[in-house]
Amino acid sequence: MSEAVTQGIRVRVRSEYRPERSHPARKQYFFAYTVRILNESERTVQLVARHWIITDAHGRAEEVRGPGVVGEQPVLRPGGSFEYTSGCPLPTEFGTMHGTYQMRCTDGAEFDAVIAPFRLALPNAVN
């Protein structure tokens, strides 16, 4: 699990290996991750974009950028939260993910909320 707070926006992430969607013989491993975003600030914000850096066990990094998350650009009022689950395929038994969410305030100000690094790993994997 990882957790970071940026300007009152708390981002928590937990991940798990999904064997039913993986094919180890073909070096395909699938991981699900659940993100919970909590607005602990006094202002309303909208998540407008994401930027992920996904690194496999060989150190190969891939960057993913796009609007919103899971097809949404959620608005978070003070005290509000948003949770979603997504997935990530890897060619190795473990890796890491981290990144940022671009947040926009109602006054037009923008900032990047940090997504702290978290592990993608098979149970009992050594890295």
Description:
- By secondary structure, this protein is mainly beta.
- The protein has a single domain, classed as Immunoglobulin-like (Sandwich).
- It has no helices and 9 strands.
- The strands form 2 sheets. Strands 4, 5, 6, 8 and 9 form a 5-stranded antiparallel sheet that branches. The chain has a 4-stranded antiparallel sheet with strand order 1-2-3-7, with no helix packed on it.
- The protein is elongated and about 50 Å long.
- The mean pLDDT is 96.
Secondary structure topology:
Layout: E1 2-6, E2 9-17, E3 29-39, E4 45-56, E5 61-67, E6 75-76, E7 81-90, E8 94-105, E9 110-121
Antiparallel strand pairs: 1-2, 2-3, 3-7, 4-5, 4-6, 4-8, 8-9
The percent range for helix content is under 10%
The outline comes out as elongated
CATH class descriptor name? Mainly Beta
Beta-strand proportion? over 45%
Largest sheet: 5 strands, antiparallel
N-end to C-end Cα span: 16 Å
Please give the radius of gyration in angstroms: 15 Å
Structure classification: mainly beta
H/E series, N to C? EEEEEEEEE
- Alpha plus pi helix count: 0
**Oligomerization category of the chains in this entry:** single chain
Please state the average pLDDT score. 96
Low-pLDDT runs? none
Number of strands: 9
Q: Give the name of the CATH architecture.
A: Sandwich
Count of the separate structural domains:
1
CATH topology: Immunoglobulin-like
The CATH homologous superfamily corresponds to: ApaG domain
